[in-house]
Amino acid sequence: MTSTPPPVDAQEYLENLMRAGQDAMKQFDDALVSAAGVGTKDSLSSGRRLFPFALIADLQREYFKQLWNSMFLQTFAGGAHSSVALARGDRRFKDDAWQEMPYYDLLKQSYLLGSRQLHEFVDRAQVDDKTKLQLRFYARQFIDAMSPSNFPATNPEVIRKAIETRSASLTDGMKNLIDDLHKGRITRVDESAFEVGRNLATTTGSVIFENELIQLIQYAPQTSEVEKTPLLIVPPCINKYYLLDLGTGNSLVEYAIAQDHHVFLISWRSAVPETGHLTWDDYLEMGPLRAIDVVLDITGAERTHALGFCVGGTILSCAAAVLAARQQDKLATLTLLTTMLDFTDTGEIGLLIDQGSVALREAAIGKGGILPGKELAFTFGTLRANDLIWRYVVDNYLKGATPDAFDLLYWDSDSVSLPGPMYCWYTRNTYLENNIKEPGKTTQCGVPIDLSKVKVPLYVLASREDHIVPWKSAYGSKDLIGIDARFVLAASGHVAGVINPPARNKRSHWLNDQLVSDPNSWLERAEEKSGSWWPDWDAWMKQHSNGTVPAPSEPGNVHYRTIEPAPGRYVKQKSN
Fold first, then answer.
1. What's the whole-model pTM score?
2. Is 557 helix (H, G, I), strand (E, B) or coil?
3. Which of 100, 206, 249, 310 is the 20 to 30 Å CA partner of 464?
């Protein structure tokens, strides 16, 4: 029996929301000051070094000049508007009131002018490049948080909705807020619309092996013959695998099976107390290295194709280097989708990882413990805060709306926890110290790692608008691992660039067989092809295969029998 929420006082609710906004403003302001390094005793002199007085005066003078022009145009020029442009895709001010009502137009213009001034303020700061990038990130967090669209008293849509519903929208918003407080995260999707195994991860298969870290799925063939060389897919361990098997017509797994590939896939287990001790080496040994042996045992093949996505690609590459160091020839090809091996340029996510934060994690969970999935999810959300945080704060809490049903957002909200020792090793040796790319710099699974010793054909896919793995960083993988590399650049971002079924005929990709050293030069000479990159990858794989064999009639073999049907237990477990 559920209890009925107490009656909501609309005025108190509005006051609490505005107070929360003020608190958020202070937190972002503190973060900005901390990033700038002006929170110490000599803050005044530090501030002067960062932002000379003449610069501050010039920026303030320009701000007030433009704000006055905006007010003059609005008040005296018959409703004309100033021309502070919105960023492409910015939907916060789409309501007509932001343009047609002087009060809201002035709010918007002053906010946009202030935002632009703060960006210019940061761009002219006299600091090193990394500090400037950090300042830009924190400034954007502050700017996004303080948008007038985020507050009920200054959002015309919220006020109109409250009037139309006689405050029912405020009551519904409070209920949504209470529910999310219990969950510990913002609800961004109608979670009742999806269920793993019912309308997500529905491709037919069987779990034929498991240990405390992974389940290995063998998918049922759809054709009478399959490629003799099997395919092992290694998804990222920070997300559930079903991004690659969202549903009928939207599944890379389904597509690969339809092209006669004999597909196996790792399903990572979200960390629980009994696995909180697992290390990076455990992830290699118990993950791809063990899975490769099982795949070869079941199929009887000498080698397997292997595909890794995002962090899964980093794990797979390190596992391949372990095999090379052990002189074990078990891979036919290596495919890396939006994967980083060289962490020199990590984009904005690298700005959140520094010596202090890594040392703090190492002290807390480095010898055992769990990094909760919701913390990882929030970190990724801050990279696109307007789209992934504030939009839902406004819609869910201020308007009382119910989120839409969207499979990608459901997957994105289905977070995975990581063991502390594994996470700490990964962040230190990638984002912080960039050790993996250096031959012999790391020892993994008891052997020195040298990615260049991996001598198998390489297929690298990057996404042009990827905010997690910059495409130029992914491009550099061709010089670190594998032979006879093929590089393909997909349109769109980290996820949409990868999940692009050919039948939908969406987006495009770029091809250029001449892999020059400079990625910009490669792109200038690349040919844009409409549609998905999947057929190109399939054709490349078959060039490196050994023909076909009759499809197996049953999953597994005498050593590995069916444990349960796909998608298995691990993917259905929820993280804390």
1. 0.83
2. coil
3. 249
